[in-house]
Amino acid sequence: MGDDFEFSRDNSLLSLYACNAAILIFKMIWVTLLTSKTRISKKIYANPEDAKVSKGKVLMNDPDVERVRRAHLNDLENIPAFLFVSFLYILTGPSYFVAFVLFWSFTAARILHTVVYAVKPLPQPARALSFFVGIIITFYMSVQVLKYFW
Fold it and tell me: Would you state the CATH architecture of domain 18-37+63-149?
């Protein structure tokens, strides 16, 4: 990293990080809204007070709601870890090209994961491949951060 790391828009690695982080956060918000839309359209809720307002029912095992909810939970398990480690990764001063490939590959894999899991379900291995691309990228960057800072 050295003393020349600059927290500014002119830092290409920081800009790359910021763009991918914003897209991933936007995607997580979208999946939250998709979960709500699925619940509302099916009138299936997790809480009695919500069901009462819309004359729906409380049900915790609707397959459509659960599929979207699991995709959302998967995002919550994977994206924050990526956001944290990828920020630390840019502090190691990696090549812009390598960071570009890693960040955009992770972002694309997470979007694809949501599409093949919750939007237009496809048979395996579509979901598994997109999941493991993200895991491998996060693991790689974690190793690089440890090697640099340890």
Answer: Up-down Bundle (1.20)
